[in-house]
Specification:
about 200 residues, 10 strands, about 30% helix, binds iron/sulfur cluster
Length: about 200
């Protein structure tokens, strides 16, 4: 086939249009223009993946409060439209779809506090107030029991005000501000062992 300047420009235009259609929820439409779009009648939200510290941009399409489609944001400078398997499946954190394509709350999602008492082989369901109270009491008890006001460093006694009995793990599910506050609180009670699941 002879490629004239005019046919080259036409071909480039068609290729660019197809490329843009394949980005946000239009993959199927590009393959089969007669097929109904999955993102039809949805609201579009731009968000950041919470699974790790890379911070990929995601476009979520929401219908009736349910994410029906999630794809990498092509305009986001971090991921430029790509997502790893965790980011691609972000909607499944809350919902799954049955065999007819209807959304239902993900049955694997834990929504209750499960507590296994020392020596027990089974979990009991507890409420959140009970859990928060239990965690606070245990932190206080461990901290008071193991607190060191001073320590010897190079033969000299220095003030440390620390506990080495408690470790603190931050989460990429929290915002930077929340993790900042966690860090301040951990330091305030003398915790020195801190890490974060998104430390890459
Ligand atoms: S989990 Fe994957 S999609 Fe999410 S921020 Fe990390 S690399 Fe990006």
């Amino acid at each position: 086939m002879e490629l004239t300047r005019r046919s080259f420009l036409k071909l480039a235009g068609v290729t660019a249009a197809a490329a843009s259609l394949t980005s946000v929820g239009y993959r199927k439409a590009a393959a089969d223009p007669g097929e109904r779009l999955r993102i039809r009648y949805t609201q579009e939200f731009h968000t950041i993946c919470t699974f790790c510290g890379v911070g990929c941009g995601i476009i979520c399409n929401v219908r009736d409060g349910v994410i029906v489609n999630a794809e990498g944001d092509p305009d986001h400078p971090v991921n430029e439209g790509t997502l790893c398997s965790k980011g691609s499946s972000i909607s499944n954190v809350s919902y799954t779809f049955d065999e007819k394509g209807k959304p239902r709350p993900n049955p694997k999602r834990l929504t209750d506090v499960l507590y296994r008492a020392p020596g027990s082989d089974s979990y009991e369901v507890k409420d959140w107030d009970w859990a928060l109270d239990k965690i606070a009491r245990r932190i206080k008890e461990s901290r008071d029991r193991t607190h060191e006001a001073t320590a010897m460093v190079d033969g000299e006694e220095v003030t440390v005000n620390r506990t080495k009995a408690i470790g603190w793990l931050g989460s990429a599910f929290c915002t930077g501000e929340e993790n900042y506050l966690f860090h301040k609180m951990a330091r305030a009670i003398g915790i020195v062992s801190m890490d974060h699941c998104a430390r890459l």
